[in-house]
Amino acid sequence: MKENIPVLIILLPLCSALLCLLLTGLHKRLGRALVVLATAGSLVLSVIQLRTVITEGTIHYAVGGYEPPFGIELVIDSLNALIIVMISIIGFLTVLFAENFGDDRPVVKGSANAILALLITGLLGMTSTGDMFNLYVFLEITSLSAYCLIAMGGSKGVVSAYRYMLVGTIAATFYLLGIGILYSATGTLNMGDLSAILNKGGYDDVMLVSMSFLIAAFGIKMALFPFHGWQPSAYTHAEPGTRPLITGVMGKIPALAMFRYFYCIYGTDYIYVKYLLILLGVFSVFGMLYGSLMAMGQSDIRKILAYSSVAQIGYISLGFAIGTPVALAGSFLHMIGHAFMKGGLFFCTGAIRFKYGTVNIDDFGRIYKKMPLTCGLLVVAALSMIGIPPTAGFFSKWYLALGAAGRHEWIYIAVLVISSLLNAVYFFKVIEKVFIQQDKGLDDKWSKGELELPLTIILPVVVCFIAILGIGIFNVKLFDILMLTLEGVGL
Amino acid sequence: MTIIMLIVVITVPFIAFDVLPAIGDPESPPNSHVSDYYIEHAIDECNSPNMVTAVIVDYRAFDTMFETTVMFLAGISVVLIMANKPRRRIPSPGDFKRTRNTGGTPIYQTINKDVMISTIEPLILIYAMYVLFHGEVSLGGGFQAGALIGMTYLLDVMAVKRDKPIMNLTKFMSAAIAGLGPFIYALTGIICFIGGGLYLQYNKLPFNIHEAELHSIGITAVEIGVTIGVAGTIITILNALRERISFDDDND
Fold first, then answer.
1. Considering the domain boundaries, does residue A418 fall inside one?
2. Looking at the domain assignment, is residue A38 inside a domain?
3. Fewer CB near the terminus (10 Å): N or C of chain B?
């Protein structure tokens, strides 16, 4: 059974999603219980898988027993394994959290849980697959379930989901064009085989054209700066219970896929690589400044966080644009850290909305007295976004700056610092509202029991709090795990 | 203007760089790298004379499983978004009858639908079964069979006015059935674990017969799963669209 762990991690949420509606028909709570159990199971398996990968090296799993390139292959290296653990944790917490939102009719409850589980399946699959077309299938599952979850957030949600769907379909088309060109030039769909063929040389034009399409495709999916148009409204109006997963994880996985194409498949030996890196760097730099500036002007906390995500994705792609192993490790550290920060911040806004029904930061006056745990996470996550030690954000930015200094990219370091200062401006605005402003005297919509919130909200809040500090303190450990794969990759 | 720009941007790379092989070139990489292997080994390894089926549900069965899941996802998405908040009843066709110009009976109304439909429906279903079980031998497969079964239901619901329908599936039940189909597919793969195989490795199914036969059983099982999934999805979408659409539910 142990060799089947990579596929079981994907299968557990998938099967729970497929059976969820049927079981919800039998009993109202049964379907949801199955989804919770399945995501918990895949969390446990992903931790076991991470241990295996660290001790025994990369796992290659040939689905159906057909050797690649003839069958489909799942490839789990230490990078993937770490990201899979991250997805499983946030996925599990979001499934718990989503219980408190949405209406109670069995058909809505059952379908919503099924779609949430499918979103987790898609993200896990995109991370673990080693096949180009299989990646597209998982991309499709991820996007479709995300469209639906965004559309469930009321009438504004429907409009923003429609917008995202139009743009997202173009992204999927670009991805197909990109892999179509690659397939017609090499005749293979397996990533390892493709990499071997491309590195024989003579494919420079093919690589340039396909990479431009792939940058557009993944850029749209991860909301990189000039392609980010769909993102702020979609993140703002998504179904409140599932927002942490959508905002925290969904943008990161296309970034991981882009990294795979950029460094693991294409390598850095073809002649156009430096132009593509500069292109990516320009996108990131403008994204970091634009996202931070736009976030300063908002008063809806969801909008602040959505625009800040544009900037934070810029940090991740900045690491790719720098391209040294240290900078890449910084990118991935930021990916993991930011998933917990942004997920955590959306857990906080969800919790505040659940208790007081508001999302406007002007109403947050002295809320810390009533919701100490939530505000604790809010402050830690905000400090981590700004980049203050010992939180996760500081160390990822540190590695990024270290990588940039190694290649003498002083502009990148300057932008990194400026963007962090801009982050400080708008996050201190939030912190000021929470701690200093007058109490608005909002009515409490949930005052049962001793706790400030239901247990299903407290658990995600506490886990994110611990994770942000934990990633910061044990960053060297994570850095070493990432380096198992990243050593020798990049410039 | 934007559209022209988009077309230019997309076509320029193909003209400026020679990235695509000539059409029909037998030496081009897509026609020689992995295709040769499929052509030479499909019959031996998968026991399927139809190479397309061999590639779809055996070599790349993992993809097809998620494509079927996409169908299920589309079905429940339509239920959630379109039929979430039924407010008013759809005006029934009877409401429009008064306003219609009646210049004699149209020719299609002279057909006795009860007789015609009950003759056609069994034929369509038999054909669906043929398409399903012959999918691995000749053209056909689960998707088409599922579409045929779904169409039969659609025909029955839309054409015949019955006081008591033969089979009345609610949108909840049909969505649950649509989920059951891909689950059968996934389960076929999981059963392979028992025989000590990898996921979807049909020749490790725990039955005591020849390997080639096991491949046939596996392919048929997943095709049945696909059929149920597609039929359920079509019925789900029909059921969802029959309800009133209303977006006055901004709970944000």
1. yes
2. no
3. N
Tokens of A171: 């992204």
Question: Does the residue A458 lie in any domain?
Answer: yes
Is residue A341 within 8 Å of A384, Cβ to Cβ?
Answer: yes
CB contact under 8 A, B63 and A134: yes
Lowest mean pLDDT among A348-352, A413-417, B102-106, B109-113: B102-106
Taking a C-beta distance cutoff of 8 angstroms, is the pair B199, A5 a contact? no
* Residue of chain B whose Cα is closest to the Cα of A106: B172
User: Does residue A334 sit within a domain?
Assistant: yes
Question: What confidence score (pLDDT) does residue B119 get?
Answer: 86
Confidence of residue A269 (pLDDT cuts 50, 70, 90): confident
Distance between CA atoms of residues A377 and A244, nearest Å: 14
CB contact under 8 A, B31 and A187: yes
ipTM rounded to 2 decimals: 0.91
State how beta strands A73-76 and A59-62 pair. antiparallel
**In the structure encoding, which two tokens stand for residue A354, read together?**
């659940």
Query: Number of CB pairs < 8 Å for A and B?
Result: 188
Record the tokens describing residue B9, joined without a space: 């941007």
Judged against a pLDDT cut of 90, whether residue A468 lies above it is answered with yes
In chain B, which residues have their Cβ closer than 8 Å to the Cβ of A28?
Answer: none
Question: What total of structural domains would you count in chain A?
Answer: 1
Within 8 A of B182 by CB-CB distance, chain A residues are 14, 18
The pLDDT, as a whole number, for residue B99 is 53
Contacts of A145 in chain B (CB under 8 A): 73, 77
In chain A the first and final C-alpha atoms are separated, in Å, by 39
Token representation of residue A344: 């955590």
Cα A247 vs. chain centroid, distance in angstroms? 7
Window 130-189 of B: residues touching A by CB (8 A cutoff) are 171-173, 175-176, 179-180, 182-183, 186-187, 189
* Sequence letter at residue B208: N
Q: Which domain holds residue A336?
A: 272-491
Cα end-to-end distance, chain B, whole Å: 36
Residue recorded with tokens 């993200």 = A123
Whether residue B32 and residue A187 make contact (CB cut-off 8 A), yes or no, is yes
Q: Which two tokens stand for residue A56?
A: 């025994």
Q: Please name the residues in contact with A319: beta carbons below 8 A apart, sequence gap of 6 or more.
A: A327, A328, A330, A331, A332, A334, A400, A403
Select from B17, B31, B179 the Cβ nearest to the Cβ of A22.
B179
How much is the pLDDT for B103? Answer: 61
CA distance A395 to A401: 10
Q: Return the SS3 of B33.
A: coil
Give the torsion through C-alpha atoms of A93, A94, A100, A105, to 10 deg. Answer: -130
